[in-house]
Amino acid sequence: MSSTHLIDDSPLTKYHKRLIAACSGGPFLDGFLLSIIGVALTGANSDLALDPASIGIAGAVSLVGLFVGSLVFGPVTDRIGRRVMYTADLLVMIIASVACLWIDAGWQLIALRFIVGLAVGADYPIATSLLTEWMPKKYRGAMIGLLSVVWLLGAVVAYLVGFAFTSALGAGSWRWMLASGAVFGVIVMLLRMGAHESPRWLITKGRTEEARKDISSVLGREVTTEEITDMVAQEEPQRPARFTNLLRGMNLRRILFCGLTWMCFAIPQFALFTYGPIILSHLGFGDDTAGATLGQIILNLGFLLGSFPGMKWVESRGRRPLILGSFLFGALALVPLGIWPDAPGWFVMAFFFLFAVINGAGNILVFIYPNELFPTQLRASAVGLATAVSRIGAAIGTYLVPVSLSGLGTGPTMLIGAGLTALGFVISLFWAEETRNRNLASAAQSPAEGHKTSPSQAKATGTVAL
């Protein structure tokens, strides 16, 4: 049996399904923790007497933490392994969430939101790399895309929780809203118990016997020494892999592509998640906080709804058509809101909902591309660096949203969002690659190399990947 069948062509086992649930827990928490602040800021603003600048910092500081966390802990994950970091970041999320119960000053809110962002940034390269390196090729794109879906689900649940707290206890319950993330954190921690280390990572570290035992356990059969020997030959790097390799040539272009397109998806999305009720109020939807929050829940459901056909299209139509279509039609959906900011509430919700559906479909690619375009030795580092690039712009953009709303007005702010989305289309037009139905090693090659070598030729020359 070719070693190709060990992972890339294996069936979807019970362990794979359990790993999908466990890895999805991180993005769920990420979506929840980064979105709950959108509802909590209303009460925090009143109790802590925050000025507009402090509100902007409180909304954006998690993205700064996410930038630092992803940039620092991506390389750490490549160095010490996926499984060690798999639970450490969850502990930080849980502790920081519980600590929100004792906030009594604006700087404390900002500090804890930074720590939450730090843990979220660490989880992106950890969970996505581990899942990518275990998943069969047939299901890889959809299952990595599922992490984005679960992120959106976490955001929806955050607003539902916020709406429930606001309706039952009023805006003053914001501390409990922020602390509620700890409950979900404990659940995810339990799901992650008993996970195996990535066999690809183990092999690159020379721990082949551990990899053989773990794969045997997952596949339910004894993996032979010959299969592992073939696997070692395929995974062993041809040259030392260093973080600086990501800053040169094709790798740098791919990092910029992943980071910049992620940024173009994230800025309008984070603006809606963080300041959705405020934006909807400016556009005349909702006469009170609860009404605007309900409108935000509807928009979040739109992001979630769009991701499901995206998961289908990413395998049936491919990565490149999906990203191009999402950016193009997403930009067109925001233009009417910029041209007619005083439109009736139904018009506002209709086009915002349309944008949310379109953005949700393409957003599943933000985890897929950086995990498929880089080799095992640099995968977590690449995901971390791409995340960091995306969050530089996202943090600045999110901070400037309230400034733009008050200084430029709602219409120009919507047109800026349309322009950013159109920028994503232009970047993708030149740089987006097609990685559908390609194994991980082939996808990490240059496009020319990947297309030159057929599967049969690769098998004959020993370059077929897992």
Folded structure, characterized:
The chain has one domain: MFS general substrate transporter like domains (Growth Hormone, Chain: A), CATH 1.20.1250. 79% of the residues lie in helices and 0% in strands. It has 20 helices and no strands. The longest helix is centred in the first third of the chain and has 35 residues, at 14-48. The radius of gyration is 22 Å and the shape is globular. Keywords: Membrane, Transmembrane, Transmembrane helix. It comes from Pseudarthrobacter polychromogenes.
- Which topology does CATH recognise? Growth Hormone, Chain: A
Number of helices: 20
Question: For the CA atoms, what is the radius of gyration?
Answer: 22 Å
**CATH top-level class:** Mainly Alpha
Strand content: under 5%
Order of helices and strands: HHHHHHHHHHHHHHHHHHHH
Please outline the helices and strands.
Elements: H1 14-48, H2 52-80, H3 82-99, H4 106-134, H5 137-169, H6 174-179, H7 181-191, H8 199-204, H9 208-219, H10 225-235, H11 249-282, H12 289-316, H13 319-339, H14 345-363, H15 365-372, H16 379-407, H17 410-431, H18 440-444, H19 447-452, H20 455-461
Helix pairs in contact: 1-2, 1-4, 1-5, 1-7, 1-11, 2-4, 2-16, 3-4, 3-7, 4-15, 4-16, 5-12, 5-15, 9-10, 11-12, 11-14, 11-15, 11-16, 11-17, 12-14, 13-14, 13-17, 15-16
